Amino acid sequence: MTMKASTRQVDGVTIVDLSGRITLGEGSVVLRDTIRDVVGQGNKQILLNLGDVTYIDSSGIGELVSAYTSVRNQGGELKLLNLTKKVHDLLQITKLYTVFDIKDDEAAAISAFAK
Amino acid sequence: MNATRVSYTLDSSLESVNKAESAAHDIATKSGFDEDEAQRISMAVREATVNAVLHGNAYDPKKRVTIAFETTGKALTVAIRDEGKGVNTDEIPDPLAPENLLKQSGRGIFLIRAFMDEVRFRNMNPGTEITLIKHVRGEARDGEEASK
Q1: What is the tens place of the pLDDT at every residue in A79-98?
Q2: pTM for the whole structure
Q3: Buried (b) or exposed (e) across B11-24, using 16+ Cβ within 10 A?
Q4: Half-sphere exposure at residue B135, Cβ-oriented, CA atoms within 13 angstroms
Q5: Is residue A115 situated within a structural domain?
Q6: Of A23, A65, A95, the CB nearest to B104
Q7: pLDDT at position B141
Q8: Which of A24, A65, A66 sits opposite B17 (nearest CB)?
Q9: What is the DSSP letter of B136?
C-alpha cells in the first residue's frame, strides 16, 4: 500500500492525515513534499495524523524527524496524533518519543497549540 | 528438523527491498514466529537490504544483493550480502546519543540489532555480509540455557 497524504484546516491548525507506509522511496517523498508545501504556504501549526499509517521504517522515522526540525526551524510547531502501537514502539526504541509532542485526541491536540 | 534454505539474487533496487521484506515475513511466519516477531524480523531484513542496495551497492545496476534464509526449527538465519566497498561498524554513530537524536538517518543498524537476537558483520573484500539470527521463542542458543 502506497502512502497518501491529505490536509485540512481546523482552528488555524493544519492537520495532515497520512495513510499507508512511510518507507524509503515513495512514502518518504510524499511526506517530505507535503510538509514542504504546507510550510511553504505559511502554516506554522501542523498536526501529523498517523492513525492510518500501517508501517514505518528507519527512512520514515528520519522523515518524521526532518519534518519536526524543518517546521521548528521556520518558527512553527509540529505534533503527532494517533500513533499505532507499532509506530509508538519504534519511537520509544529510538528515544524519539521524548522529542515529539504526541497526542491521541484531535481536539485536545488542536487546543495544545499556542494561540 | 532438517534445515531449509532459500536464497535470492536481487537487483540493487527499491523493488528488491520490498521483495526481501515480503519474503522474510513469509518465511518467519512459516518458521513459527508470531505476527509481531515476523514483523520485527521482516523490518530487520528490510533495513539490512536497504543498506546493501543504498550504501553497499549504491544502486549500481551491475551489482547484486544476495539474501539467504535458513530455518532449522530452532532459529531463522538470514545472510544479506552486497558487492560494495564494505562498512566499518565501529564508525557508525549511536543514534540515541543526544547529538544524533535529531539526525535524519543512522537508525537502520540500531533497529536491526534491536529486533534480532544476533547480528554479525563480515567484510567480504569486496562487499559486506550481515547475518541476522532470531531464535524461536523458548529455544536455547548453542551452549546456553533456555531459561536464561
Answers
A1: 999 999 999 999 999 999 99
A2: 0.91
A3: bbebebbbbbbebb
A4: 11
A5: no
A6: A65
A7: 52
A8: A24
A9: P
* DSSP letter (8 states) at residue B95: T
Enumerate the domain spans of chain B: 4-135
B23-40 pLDDT, tens digit per residue, is 999 999 999 999 999 999
Find the CATH number of the domain harbouring A36: 3.30.750.24
**Cα distance from B113 to chain A (closest Cα, Å)?**
11
- CA separation (Å) from A14 to A17, A19, A38, A88, B68? 10, 16, 8, 22, 46
pLDDT digits (tens, 9 = 90+) for B40-78: 999 999 999 999 999 999 999 999 999 999 999 899 999
Quote ipTM for the complex: 0.91
Give one DSSP letter per residue of B15-77, joined into a string.
Answer: HHHHHHHHHHHHHHHHTT--HHHHHHHHHHHHHHHHIIIIIISTT-TT-EEEEEEEE-SSEEE
Does A24 contact B14 at a Cβ distance shorter than 8 Å? yes
